[in-house]
Amino acid sequence: MNRNEDPHHPPVKRLRLVLGDQLNQAHHWYQETDANVVYLIAELKQEAVYVKHHVQKVCAFFAAMAQFAKWLEDQGHEVHYLTLDESARYQDLPALLTASIAQHGAQGFEYQRPDEYRLREQLSDFCTQLEIPSQESDTEHFLLPFEALGQYFEPNKHVRMESFYRKMRVRCRVLVENNEPLGGRWNFDAENREALKPDDLKDIPAPLCFENDISDILDRLSRHEITTIGRSSRACLWPINREQSLALLDYFCQNQLPLFGRFQDAMTCHSEHQWSLYHSRLSFAMNAKILSPAEVIDAALDTYHEANGAIGLAQIEGFVRQILGWREYVRGMYWANMPDYASQNTLQAGATLPDWFWTGETRMRCLNEAITQSLDYAYAHHIQRLMITGNFALLAGIDPAQVDAWYLGIYIDAIEWVELPNTRSMALFADGGWIATKPYAASGNYVNKMSDYCKSCEYSVKDKTGDDACPLNSLYWHFIDRNAHRLKGNPRTAFPMKNWEKQSDENRQAIRAKAEQVIDNLNVL
Ligand code: FAD
Ligand code: SF4
Predict the structure, then answer these.
(1) Does the C-beta of 525 come closer than 6 Å to ligand 2?
(2) CATH code at 40?
(3) Are residues 33 and 92 located together in one domain of the fold?
(4) Quick check: is 230 in a domain?
(5) CA of 36 to the centre of ligand 1 (A)
């Protein structure tokens, strides 16, 4: 018998808060209607301005929240939905909650555990001041329960993603037989690093986009003077409800999964039809919890099995690794290391983010492509984020706080629990090695190998010095040189360090001078 049916405890009205990234229809809250529960869903100014977001990101979240509220109402639940016009009267979330609790005469307050440290702190502080009982529930989204994170992750400690991932494969019984990997290998990364050849380009499936009308939301953003970045359009191309998210998942399984792994690291000058290659673009639907990671993995596994060998094991393993491995792993690292994570800066990087990160206006073709695409679609795929924008920020020694703010704002899927470990650790090595065993630093060579960017670049990828030399080349060696004392003793960086030391003094001097000139002129590259 629940408390509301108990004659000794008369029913009490409860307010339940649903945040914008908690749109999980399968949550136990919604399985039965309860006349004593009211759900609060609100477009919040504090969430729209805590960092400068991409306009498509704010619109996609607000549109998805409205769809979720409508679904709740259709199921018979009572919903109190506030647009910015109504919620902007309150200074912040606690002020809104206080008013809503009073308005509904609520005698209890419930919320789902926020995935962001900032919001969790805010809500738990609010609850300590509250005079009515409050309760935090799980979001019932991730594959690894929150309570189990401590078994896998420890603060301030390196945890190998590969070991975690193998444990998750066994724990969730994915692609394993008798606790051993299907096909005899856990990892197919070596097969999954192909660049696209000109012939491959014509086969790339066009991304599936939606046309959700967001005119009203755009008007509200402008009415409330919310500053955003990126290209805006009256239609949101991202999935904002279950139906669209499932359609995107199906589209991925049918069209992109067969070559997902093979071209996972490839990059190409984008065109209208090729900006997401074989990537799924499911991160927004998953991070908003419209889709669960379990159902995404299951759908991909079903497709793989039904294909009867037509989809290679390396392709499905590559995809499963991203979700069962990386996604769960970065969440574990985030919670193990917050709040200290957000101030890590082991390499003592402090340069200012160049202005062209906000416009894409640079002559470096690789950065121009990755940034313009990000501004156009609020999306870049993993290797563009890691090895183009991330690599540049690492080599140029940009202040991690500024890099974090850029990533947190610009991408459709950016929520701190997943953005921060990827940026601070993977891209910037600012944690000194909690995640990566070496910095992911690369010269123009890597970009040239994995993309067609260099072919149409004003800079010459072959040169390290000289006016036309690719800036990444001198920056790369400068990075090795200036961090030699930190990287000494790391076997994974021994090779480039030896190469640097082997060069003549004259060469090294010329490269240093060129890099310093680049660093002094970051804004005009
Ligand atoms: P796919 O390539 O189709 O991969 C499938 C799914 O795997 C993704 O949807 C995502 O849920 C998961 N995934 C893949 N790689 C990672 C990873 N490294 N960490 C966590 N999940 C992963 N991802 C975000 O969701 N939000 C972010 O804010 C974010 N910021 C990033 C910042 C940097 C500097 C880097 C290097 C990576 C970042 N990523 C982030 C991880 C990754 O780039 C995106 O998840 C991915 O590009 C989303 O596109 P997709 O859905 O097409 O992914
Ligand atoms: Fe980028 Fe250098 Fe290639 Fe130009 S030459 S696209 S700057 S790697």
Answers:
(1) no
(2) 3.40.50.620
(3) yes
(4) no
(5) 39
Q: Tell whether 234 is covered by a domain.
A: no
Asked if residue 201 and residue 102 are part of one domain, the reply reads no
Q: Are residues 79 and 198 in the same domain?
A: no
Nearest protein Cα to ligand 2, atom 7? 364
**Residue 58 lies in domain:** 3-137
Average pLDDT over residues 453-466: 96
Question: What is the overall mean pLDDT for the chain?
Answer: 94
Please check whether residue 370 is in contact with residue 447, taking contact to mean a CB–CB distance below 8 angstroms. no
Report if residue 397 sits inside a domain. yes
How many whole angstroms from 257 Cα to the centroid of ligand 1?
16
What's the CATH number where 195 sits?
A: 1.25.40.80
Helix (H) or strand (E) holding 74: helix 55-74
Task: State yes or no: cis peptide before 339, omega within 30 of 0.
Answer: yes
Q: What is the DSSP string of 456-487?
A: G-SSBTT-SSSTTB-HHHHHHHHHHHHTHHHH
Classify residue 244: in a domain, yes or no. no
Residue nearest to atom 5 of ligand 2 (CA): 461
CATH number of 468's domain: 1.10.579.10
For residue 1, the model assigns a pLDDT of 40
- Sign of the CA dihedral 243, 249, 253, 254? positive
Q: Which two tokens stand for residue 158?
A: 């390196």
Q: How far apart are CA 244 and CA 222, in angstroms?
A: 27
Q: Are strands 37-42 and 212-213 parallel, antiparallel or unpaired?
A: unpaired
CB of 297 within 6 A of ligand 2: the answer is: no
- Cα dist. 480→26, 396, 452, 485, 519 in Å? 49, 11, 26, 9, 15
Nearest residue CA, atom 10 of ligand 1?
283
Number of domains in the chain: 3
- The answer on 153 and 112 residing in a single domain is no
Residue 326 has pLDDT above 60, yes or no: yes
pLDDT above 60 (res 3): no
Residues 152, 131, single domain; the answer is no
- 368 shares a domain with 322: no
SS3 content of the chain, % helix, strand, coil (to 5): 55, 5, 40
- Give residue-wise pLDDT tens across range 235-281: 899 999 999 999 999 999 999 999 999 999 999 986 667 899 999 99
Nearest CA to ligand 1 atom 11: 283
Which of 447, 444, 482 is closest to 460 using CA atoms? Answer: 444
Do 161 and 199 belong to one domain? yes
> What is the C-alpha separation between 291 and 244, in angstroms, rounded?
10
Q: What angle do CA 317, 318, 321 make, to 5 degrees?
A: 80
The bound ligand whose nearest atom lies closest to the alpha carbon of 404 is: 1
